[in-house]
Specification:
By secondary structure, this protein is mostly helical. An 8-stranded parallel beta barrel has the order 1-2-3-4-5-6-7-8, surrounded by 9 helices. Helix 20 links the parallel strand 4 (444-449) and strand 5 (473-479). It is globular and about 90 Å long.
């Protein structure tokens, strides 16, 4: 037991010293945990929450004291996060490495000395094997300024150099920027993409340098393209209607301008480059003229302004260049005309960047939903019913085959695009115009979310042929839902049975598929999702062999967030890449002769951190290179860093026992999936996520906000499917228990505990996956979750009312209990907690080495609960009022319980105005009628403003918890 007689922070005339307050409150957490070990009926988190509340009541802590404390806690969280980021990408390792041990020179050295060795190397690095894809979604959970400071700090090798930057960040709010537009997301993606492009240039330069030393007469023939940068920011219209086609075209023009700027900036100022320089300068000037008349985001442009933009695209089309062939030819000529190797090297690097990305700074990924495809094609069919209906399957496949037999390409102009109403047709037409007027160098990616039938792929192919761009569009199904992961192979098989689809694949030369870890993880559990995705991956390889498609490249785009609940591995970037693309699957592809292109998402402000500075981006690219070329270098220690177990354990990536014990793997992950699916359908789980969880989160992106009820409040969800994956996962983080990474694993492990322990020790694949569970456990605490659940239990508040010595507090507690009782959440939440606890106990028994939530993170939860309780205590004192817009005082208090604080305060400002009635004193020519002559300054000062300040601090703590956990959503 701690002796706390000297530990309590004391207030003086200048307030409480933040360091003393921190030490005092951390001591409370530790002491309360020790007491709970002796008293199983005590919740240590709620006990500390109550202690903090009583200090507020006694005036020992005031609100302003928290601000200094928050600066200290924020700084500590950010120091830890910057250190983790640096270690995650392996920056310390690269700083200490001998240049000859980096992947570029190792690749050259790995080519055997024999005839044709240059051609072998040229082919190896001349094909793109990996693409970094910058995605957005509402995952911009921290301010741009804080993200920039974290990245700058992580770049510094010395902790002393990092600290001033992180102290500066700690003085700033952790809450996301107040208004995040699509332009903001695009700008942040561009910063990351520019660093990524520079890192790719550095890697290509290293390849060229190593090649020049070995093949001094031929190195200038090389056009290395091992990696690419892509982005769907501004091109993702899945579930969005707020992005106009002109916005998408403008973003592609911006990307084109950045690519041309890069050429002009880097091209040597010598006579041999004059032709290509003039060509590029003319193209850049034309693009700037096109952008000058582009409608701006958020405007509803008139037909006249859209017409003016369209004409600029057409008139400037030839000068702006619409593919990279002329610039590439100019660069090739310049290499032969310059004298120095340094100039040749610079031009060769530029040539590689243009050859890889065309006239774009980042390759575009367009995305929409399968239902949008179905709606667009429904106009030319007489079919009823849904394509996903098994009873309708054959008729839909037969109909779309007949349509493909007869499809004829139509002309597309901007007038037709402006008039088109169907979203899928409009997007396909937008792509047509971009390929025609902006950049048609490479085929573009066309991602289709929620693909669950082969009909969707064939319908997309019909649309592409209809608009004349089938050879320029890579139609890509997204397999993410549980049913899609099960039926994915049938989806592809149905499409491959159609001769039009097989012909299309062979013409375009690539089969592209997208795997989603976000929705799959939240419905079947993250570990189970990884298994089902890997199984589908292996079956796709078998399907390609069966259909004689081994000459077609397989492109696999793994889409995930930056948290473990949405598929990002927490340990290191090397583990992350290997978790997404297991070595067994890659070896099988190589054995079948299938060339594979891997792609992976880097999402929002968390994902962009890995490209937040050039050194970080270089380290990230080096880890990607080690992953992609692991089978092309002969070093024995290629995968040593991937192994969790001790070196003496003998774990072997190439002979992993998890693939020999197929029954164990299938049963283990099936149990996880079954338990997670049962949890998702539990009414208590929906109540846990939907009651006040959304109120803990700030808006973190440009996507339109969720639906509201008729009364103006947030919708009460009855099933997690009514909530997007990102807030679903973010709420679990904020409530202190990452169920979609933990639940079900306990029962699965308990079925065969000895084999489970063997797999943790001996299987690289299984132990790597289990590390997600280990990380989830380290930021989870059932005591924290129970504190939130008890906060929603009226019985707890009534018991507190029974014990309190303060009459006014007793009245507050009884009112809160009554309002909570009206929500009728407690029985479902109690059953849910029992379900989670039972599985957690099994997990602890199977893996007793699991960590637990830090004292600091536990304190953040306790402080936030105290502030939430304080908001509720204040809310019950709101004066009575006549119902306004269908909202009574009782309904308003229930909305406060659900933390719809901003909405409630907006309504209260109207009900209780602080400014006098403006009609007072004016003569309206008649006897004055009754009106409110007073103002409500006292209510604003004593209730509304304190509630607002408390809620701001609640949201501030949510941002701090995000940094402790490691990512948003």
């Amino acid at each position: 037991m701690h002796d706390r007689s000297q530990a309590v922070a004391v207030r003086d005339s200048e307030g409480i010293d933040p360091e003393s307050l921190e030490r005092d409150l951390l001591g409370l957490i530790e002491e309360s945990r020790e007491q709970a070990a002796e008293d199983p009926f005590r919740n240590p988190v709620l006990a500390v929450t109550l202690a903090i509340t009583r200090r507020f009541d006694r005036g020992e802590i005031v609100e302003d004291d928290l601000d200094g404390l928050f600066v200290r806690l924020r700084t500590q969280s950010l120091v830890a996060r910057a250190e983790r980021l640096r270690g995650y990408v392996g920056l310390d390792r690269d700083d200490a490495a001998d240049p000859g041990t980096m992947m570029a020179p190792r690749l050259v050295a790995a080519i055997p000395q024999r005839q044709g060795d240059f051609e072998t190397f040229r082919d190896l690095v001349g094909r793109t094997g990996f693409a970094v894809v910058f995605t957005a979604h509402p995952t911009f959970g921290m301010p741009k300024a804080v993200a920039a400071l974290i990245a700058q700090a992580a770049t510094e090798a010395a902790p002393a150099a990092r600290l001033p930057l992180l102290e500066k960040a700690g003085a700033l709010s952790t809450r996301p920027d107040a208004r995040i537009s699509l332009d903001d997301e695009f700008d942040q993606a561009c910063i990351a993409a520019n660093h990524g492009r520079s890192a790719l240039d550095a890697f290509n330069a290293a390849l060229l340098d190593a090649a020049r030393a070995r093949w001094p007469d031929r190195w200038t023939e090389l056009v290395p393209k091992p990696f690419a940068i892509a982005s769907w920011v501004g091109c993702d219209t899945d579930g969005r209607t707020d992005i106009g086609w002109w916005d998408t075209v403008r973003y592609r023009l911006e990307s084109k301008r950045m690519q041309l700027d890069r050429v002009m900036r880097e091209l040597p100022q010598v006579d041999a480059t004059k032709v290509v320089r003039d060509l590029t300068a003319g193209a850049l000037a034309a693009v700037n003229r096109q952008l000058a008349v582009a409608p701006r985001l958020g405007t509803k442009p008139s037909l006249e302004s859209v017409h003016r933009f369209a004409l600029a695209l057409i008139i400037e089309r030839e000068r702006a260049q619409t593919d990279s062939s002329a610039i590439l030819a100019g660069l090739a000529g310049a290499i032969g005309g310059v004298e120095s190797d340094a100039d040749k090297r610079t031009i060769a690097i530029l040539r590689s960047g243009i050859a890889t990305h065309g006239l774009s700074n980042a390759l575009p990924h367009f995305r929409l939903n399968a239902s949008q495809i179905h709606n667009a094609v429904r106009r030319v069919t007489d079919l009823e019913g849904e394509p996903t209906d098994a009873a309708q399957r054959r008729s839909h496949l037969s109909t779309i085959h007949a349509l493909l037999n007869d499809v004829q390409a139509v002309d597309v102009d901007f007038g037709a695009l402006a008039a088109e109403r169907a979203s899928a047709a409009r997007l396909m037409m937008t792509i047509t115009q971009i390929l025609k007027h902006v950049d048609g160098t490479h085929p573009v990616r066309f991602l289709i979310a929620e693909t669950e039938t082969g009909y969707t792929l064939l319908a997309a192919l019909w649309l592409a042929r209809h608009y004349g761009i089938a050879d320029k569009v890579e139609i890509t199904p997204l397999f993410e839902t549980a049913s899609a992961l099960e039926q994915g192979i049938r989806v592809l098989d149905d499409a491959l049975r159609n001769p039009h689809w097989r012909t299309y694949l062979k013409r375009i030369g690539r089969l592209t598929v997208q795997f989603g870890y976000s929705d799959s993880g939240r419905y079947v559990g993250q570990l189970a999702a990884s298994f089902w995705i890997e199984r589908l991956r292996l079956r796709i390889t078998e399907l390609m062999v069966q259909n004689d498609l081994t000459g077609v490249e397989l492109a696999i785009f793994d889409t995930h967030g930056e948290s473990i609940g949405r598929g990002a591995h927490p340990t290191s970037l090397r583990d992350r890449l290997a978790y997404l693309a297991p070595e067994d699957a890659r070896r099988r592809n190589r054995a079948a002769g299938i060339k594979v292109r891997l792609e992976s998402s880097f999402q929002g402000s968390d994902g962009y951190l890995m490209f937040g500075t050039l050194p970080l981006a270089k380290a990230t690219v080096e880890r990607i290179a080690e992953h992609i070329f692991a089978l092309d270098v002969a070093d024995d220690d290629t995968f040593a860093d991937y192994v969790l177990s001790e070196a003496a354990s003998g774990a072997d990536e190439a002979d992993d026992p998890i693939y020999a014990e197929t029954d164990f793997a299938a049963e283990f992950f099936t149990v996880v999936r079954q338990d997670m699916e049962t949890l998702v359908d539990d009414p208590g789980y929906a109540a846990l996520l939907g009651t006040f969880g959304p109120g803990l989160l700030d808006r973190t992106g440009s996507r339109p906000v969720a639906r509201q009820t008729d009364g103006g409040g947030p919708t009460m969800i009855t099933h997690p499917r009514q909530m997007r994956a990102i807030p679903n996962n973010a709420i679990l983080q904020q409530l202190g228990f990452l169920a979609n990474s933990l639940h079900g694993v306990g029962r699965a492990a308990g079925r065969a505990p000895d084999l489970f322990r063997d797999m943790r020790r001996d299987s690289v694949r299984f132990s790597r996956a289990f590390r997600l569970v280990q990380h989830a456990a380290s930021v989870a605490d059932l005591d924290v979750l129970r504190a939130y659940i008890d906060t929603l239990d009226p019985a707890v508040w009534l018991e507190r009312a029974r014990r309190t010595q303060r009459d006014t507090r007793r009245e507050e507690l009884v009112v809160i209990a009554g309002a909570l009782d009206n929500l009728r959440l407690a029985p479902d939440l109690r059953r849910l907690f029992g379900r989670l606890t039972s599985d957690w106990l099994s997990l602890q028994s199977a893996a007793p080495d699991l960590g637990k939530m830090s004292v600091r993170l536990t304190l953040l939860h306790a402080i936030r609960l105290a502030l939430i309780h304080r908001i509720w205590f204040l809310a019950v004192h709101i004066p009575g009022f006549r119902p306004q817009s269908g909202i009574s005082r009782e309904a308003l208090i229930e909305r406060f319980l659900r933390l719809d604080v901003d909405g409630c305060l907006t309504m209260l400002e109207d009900i209780f105005p602080i400014t006098p009635d403006p009609t007072l004193g004016l003569n309206f020519g008649e006897p004055a009628g009754p009106r409110d002559v007073g103002t409500y300054e006292a209510e604003h000062k004593t209730l509304f403003e304190p509630i607002r300040r408390c809620f701001m601090r609640v949201r501030e703590l949510s941002g701090m918890i995000q940094h402790e956990v490691g990512a948003f959503g």
